[in-house]
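The instructor's notes for this session suggest beginning with a concrete chain rather than abstract definitions. Hand out the sequence below and ask the class to guess, before any prediction is shown, which regions might be ordered.
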Amino acid sequence: MPRLAIGDGEIAYEESGSGHPLLFVSGLNGTGRSWAPQVPFFSQHYRVITYDQRGTGSSDRLQRSFSVDGMAADVISLLDALGLERVHLVGQSTGGAIGQTLAVLHPERLSRMTIYATWTWCDPWFRRLFEARRQMYQQAGPELHGRFHPLWLYPPDYVNAHDAEIEEELRRAAVNPPPADVSVGRIDAIMAFDRRADLARITTPTLVMAARDDYITPAYHAEALARAIPGAQLELMDSGGHSLSKTRPDAFNARVLRFLQEGG
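After discussion, reveal the predicted structure:
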């Protein structure tokens, strides 16, 4: 992956296709490879950009303190380095929090935005889940956390049908995982996130998506976001878990493409 100098570090990114730029922003794991089911499909229509967030994947691992605002600032720096004035954005989970922040602070940089499996604030359910995940990193390290991760991300039918594939993902992830304090710092950042007071200011055309069986960010967060963001569309799917773009890629891709094409 090519790398670009961003602030005091570097971001690794990949591009494919041509047309209006479409940026995919990943969740807590931060790596662009999570969008593998989307890149071939959307690169037929757009210039698709994926990237590894700082602290993850092939990007630098210099940071230990993180914030969603800082992650959003990295996106602006990436767009500037690539010479992109405006992009469509698709963000999952933490990527959806980054999208909310960009739509509030830098609306001129977004054309249309899809956010999914994301949240409004750290309510007691979210807090308890991520306190447990943070403690798992601190006391047992990334390997044990990785063993639990698929059970949070995917619904049972997907796990049962893709058991060998999930095991291979875990094997690859264990080769060069981020330091535990990077993961802890990223968890601290998302637990501190709360854009509820600003959502009514968002003018970017927005599609909010979720699966009704999402364990990490229950669908009531998507419903709250769609109510608060003026003119937002809401799409709730019956199943798919927290990683809807991976577990139900055909339905996800078709719905997002339809939304993007509404804008011309």
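Then share the key points. The chain has a mean pLDDT of 95. Residues 3-121+195-261 form a domain with the Rossmann fold fold (CATH 3.40.50.1820).
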